[in-house]
Automatic annotation (TrEMBL):
Principal location class: membrane
Membrane topology category: Multi-pass membrane protein
SUPFAM superfamilies per the UniProt record, alphabetical: MFS general substrate transporter
Highest taxon of source: Bacteria
PROSITE patterns per record: MFS
Any one Pfam family match given in the protein's UniProt record, by short name: MFS_1
Designated name of the protein: MDR family MFS transporter
Organism per entry: Streptomyces cellulosae
Keywords of the record: Cell membrane, Membrane, Transmembrane, Transmembrane helix, Transport
Domain Major facilitator superfamily (MFS) profile as annotated: residue spans: 21-408
Stretches that traverse the bilayer: 21-44, 50-67, 88-106, 112-131, 152-173, 179-201, 226-247, 259-280, 292-310, 322-345, 357-381, 387-405
Length: 408
């Protein structure tokens, strides 16, 4: 939180101040994630214990939420291009309020699924709208001499991570009452966001033109350089998703339980909040956008290689957790290089007036890659191959993705 506040208030003598709109959008990301992560970490346990769903059905519900969000980002981005970000963001907030309120009272499978789909689609509306406008404003900030666009997008990343850190803590406190209270608190946060944006978000943003939705998807599918970026970013997301698939299995093997996972996740969040801006500043003076992504993908590959190198020794206890900690640190450092750069690269590849569509498509296309790759990864981890082999294969994926990145 300190890093975020410092970044927003950086003295004008060092670089141009962020515009009021940029500050609003960055703080929006903070509020969005606080409201979302108040609820999400506690959803699966609620569905299993309170609602009585079988494990496979809980997984299906969580998968539907991801699909209704990531898979439909392209829809939200296209709507933002057509109607502007204000109505799309406000509509998303209304749907998120309704979804959380509904989830708090849902007690049957079909009602839970309806609420979860509504929650996911809400994010598919407001997230690409906000992300695309942050990217557009970051380019304008850079062209006005305010510093690299990656710094603005790094602030956006820090805001999101800070919200993801604060939200579960608040949710854990409220869970002592009941899950319904947690859901209503999440809805309440979005009520505040809706009120603030109704008041502060401009009706018309200078320089933003509105375009028809028709024909946009064809442009995306014919844009080979953009699709190449999506493949590289998708490989990173597939690797990052191993925090929730491969890492828990490794921690369970080394420690005999998954209790250390919470500390490893906290380590990742702490690294992003404290080091994202210095890392972005350092990389911005040395690397182009492409070289930053190359360096990030190499760090991600190295994260898997560390565990692969240690697996033959079969260490357990504290020593057995050291490779997992190294994995988290290297993966997070790679994330800090890749995430802001990928968003910063999209404006250079998108057609005029289509930035929302392209921002949404980046998430949707890479999300499909993760969806397809995760099942294969699960089979790989359960294949019975020598312990180091799955980790070596996973290390090869981000390294191979470097060759897919656009050359210019």
């Amino acid at each position: 939180m300190t890093a975020l506040w410092t970044g927003l208030r950086e003295p004008a003598r060092r670089r141009a101040r962020l515009s009021p709109l940029l500050r609003l959008l960055i703080l929006t990301q903070l509020a969005f994630n606080i409201g979302f992560f108040v609820v999400l970490p506690f959803l699966s346990e609620h569905l299993g214990r309170a609602v009585g769903m079988a494990g496979w059905l809980v997984g299906l519900v969580l998968g539907l939420r991801t699909f209704s969000q990531q898979g439909l980002f392209v829809v939200g981005g296209a709507l933002a291009d057509r109607y502007g970000i204000r109505p799309v963001v406000l509509a998303g907030c209304v749907l998120r309020i309704a979804g959380f309120g509904w989830l708090g009272f849902a007690a049957q499978t079909w009602t839970v699924i309806g609420a979860v789909l509504l929650i996911g689609f809400a994010a598919a509306l407001f997230s690409p709208s906000v992300e695309s406008e942050v990217a557009r404003q970051a380019v304008a900030h850079e062209e006005a001499g305010g510093g690299p666009r990656t710094r603005v997008l790094a602030l956006f990343t820090v805001a999101g991570q800070a919200g993801a850190f604060v939200g579960p803590l608040l949710g854990a406190l409220l869970l002592s009452v009941d899950f319904r209270t947690v859901c209503l608190a999440g809805a309440g946060i979005f009520v505040l966001v809706l009120a603030g944006h109704t008041w502060l978000l401009p009706q018309h943003i200078p320089g933003r033109t509105r375009v028809h939705v028709r024909g946009g998807l064809g442009l995306v599918l014919r844009n080979r350089r953009f699709l190449a970026l999506c493949c590289g970013y998708g490989a990173y997301l597939l690797a990052y998703n191993q925090l929730y698939l491969a890492l828990p299995a490794e921690v369970e093997r080394a420690a005999g339980s998954q209790a250390p996972l919470a500390w490893l996740f906290a380590l990742s969040s702490l690294l992003v909040v404290t080091a994202q801006l210095p890392v972005t500043r350092w990389a911005g003076t040395r690397f182009t956008l492409r070289r930053s992504m190359v360096a990030g993908l190499l760090l991600v590959a190295a994260a898997f290689a560390v565990v692969a190198a240690a697996r033959p020794a079969d260490w357990t206890g504290t020593a057995g957790l050291l490779p997992a900690a190294g994995f988290v640190v290297l993966l997070t450092l790679g994330q800090m290089l890749i995430a802001p750069v990928a968003r910063a690269w999209v404006p250079d590849l998108a057609e005029d007036g289509r930035l929302g569509l392209y921002t949404g498509a980046l998430s949707s296309v890479s999300g499909l890659i993760v969806l397809a790759g995760s099942s294969v990864t699960g089979l790989l981890l359960d294949s019975g191959l020598p312990a180091a082999v799955p980790w070596l294969v996973l290390a090869a994926l981000p390294a191979a993705a470097i060759g897919l990145l656009p050359r210019r």
